[in-house]
Each structure stands twice: as C-alpha cells, then as structure tokens.
C-alpha cells in the first residue's frame, strides 16, 4: 500500500509546474555564473593570491571547474532553502485547499500511511534537487574550465589536489543536503497546519533567516545556542574543504539535523492526525 501511495504522490507532483521551477532556474543560471567567473578570472586570481603575488612568482592558473563550482555553491547555498521547499509547502496545504483529502482519506488507508508517502516524496525531491545543484554545477564548470587543484581559504590559502577534490564535494553535498532535508521537513510540518501553500514557505524562510542571524551575531548566548540549531549549519559544507576534515563538526551537524528532522516528522504526524479534513 505504501508503494502505491508513493507512486501516487510522485505522479501528482510530476504534473505540477512548480515542481520544475527550481531545476529550470538552476539549469539556466549556472552557465551564466560560470561564464562570468571565466570572464573575471584574472581579477579572481589576484584576490586569491593577494599580497603573495608581490613576493612570489606563480605559474599556471588557479581558475578551473573545481574553483568555479566551489564559488557557485558558496554563493547560492543560502538561496536553496527557498527552492527546496517549493514542493513541501504544497504537499499538504494544496490537498486541503482543493478538498481532495475528503475523498482521498475515505479509502481504506490510514493517515499515517499517507504522511509517510508524502515525507518520502519530499525527502526524495529535496535530495534530487541538491544533487542536481551540486553535480550539474560541477559538470558545467569542469567542461567549461577544466580541472586542477582547488584553492580555498583555510588558515591561509589551502591547495587541495585534484585527486581528493571530488571526495570533498561528496562530503559537502552530504552536509548541505542534511540541512536542506531538515528545512524541507520543517516546511512540510507547517504545510500540515495550513491551507495556504505560500504560508509554509514564508514561515520556513523566516525561521531560517532568524536562525542564520543568530549564527552571525556575536553574542555569547547565541554562540551557546547555535550548535543546537540546524540553521547554524547551512554554510558548514565549507568544512568539507578544510584540512584535516573536521569530522567532529560533521558528526554534530548530523546529530542535530537528525534530531530536528525526527521532531518535525513526529509533529507532522500529530497535527495531520488531529486535522479535521471536513473544514
């Protein structure tokens, strides 16, 4: 029964135009950014080398597909919460507004089964979107600019050899995807409580904004609270490019996101089971 419900949910979101908005935006935007990076390559290299160029002579170019991908992800990662919640925001509220639950839940299926199928679809959609964002950026950038060492800032300039860069991007994807899954589940939770598809996105983005502000405001109380907030890990994908990789931080991020995700799913069950679908 669960498999049938999942298939049904996939068919429903596949028919909605909003499902493809994020993918279309990423598909169009990434080549433009790569072209801009390629065009401004000299200025970018000067900003990376800084004053070192006055004392040392460098051969070759730092500008390659790996660096372009790193920049693209760093610039756009804070926009991904909005794109990743497009489906989650409508998956319950859309059913409420169209009154389809009145017919849907008269079948011999439980609300828990319906919610499980919707949670599965939201998690799958978010993971697919994040994978497309990361690896489409990597594909376009490396085809356009080639490969090579990746130069990042960590205790100065850190050069990562091309042999380990792909592994680092996979770790970065895991970190970023973990946070986005938690954000999508938060949006799904809010969707179980409202008939308006816009409200879950607005509330979710507002929470992310407040959480991000807590991360950057240098107040002692916020510093103590931040490790327990999933919003404090949005930019933690950068840790994947540190040397050595801070596994303790990644473990903390995983536990925090898993805890919040579990809470959001449990609350979604609670509110959905209590919801009066005849309203």
Poorly predicted regions are none
Distance between the termini: 27 Å
- The percent of residues in helical segments reads 55-70%
Main β-sheet: number of strands, strand sense, barrel status?
A: 2 strands, antiparallel
What does this entry look like structurally?
The chain is globular, with a radius of gyration of 21 Å. It is built from 13 helices and two strands. The chain is 68% helix and 3% strand. Strand 1 (150-153) and strand 2 (157-160) form a beta hairpin. The chain is mainly alpha-helical. It has a two-stranded antiparallel sheet with strand order 1-2. Helix 2 runs parallel beside helix 9 (111-145) and helix 10 packs parallel to helix 13 (247-274). The chain has helices at residues 2-14, 21-39, 41-49, 52-55, 65-76, 80-84, 93-98, 101-104, 111-145, 162-191, 198-216, 220-225, 247-274, and strands at residues 150-153, 157-160.
């Amino acid at each position: 029964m669960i498999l049938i419900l999942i298939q049904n949910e996939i068919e429903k979101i596949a028919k909605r135009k909003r499902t493809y908005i994020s993918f279309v935006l990423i598909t169009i935007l990434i080549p433009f950014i790569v072209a801009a990076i390629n065009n401004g390559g000299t200025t970018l290299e000067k900003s990376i080398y800084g004053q070192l160029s006055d004392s040392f002579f460098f051969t070759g170019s730092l500008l390659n597909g790996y660096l372009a991908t790193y920049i693209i992800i760093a610039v756009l990662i804070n926009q991904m919460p909005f794109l990743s919640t497009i489906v989650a925001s409508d998956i319950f509220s859309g059913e409420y507004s169209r009154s389809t639950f009145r017919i849907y839940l008269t079948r011999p299926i439980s609300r828990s089964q319906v919610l499980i199928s919707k949670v599965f679809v939201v998690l799958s959609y978010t993971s697919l979107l994040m994978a497309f964002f990361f690896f489409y950026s990597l594909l376009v950038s490396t085809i356009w600019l080639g490969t090579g060492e990746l130069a990042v800032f960590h205790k100065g300039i850190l050069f990562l050899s091309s042999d380990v860069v792909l592994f680092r991007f996979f770790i970065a994807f895991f970190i970023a995807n973990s946070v986005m899954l938690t954000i999508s589940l938060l949006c799904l939770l809010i969707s179980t409580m409202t008939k308006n598809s816009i409200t879950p996105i607005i509330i979710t983005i507002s929470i992310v904004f407040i959480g991000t502000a807590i991360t950057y405001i240098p107040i002692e109380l916020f510093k103590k609270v931040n490790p327990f907030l999933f919003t404090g890990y949005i930019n933690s994908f950068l840790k994947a490019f540190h040397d050595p990789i801070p596994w303790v931080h990644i473990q903390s991020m995983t536990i925090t996101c898993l805890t919040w995700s579990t809470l959001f799913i449990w609350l979604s069950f609670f509110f959905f089971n209590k919801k009066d679908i005849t309203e």
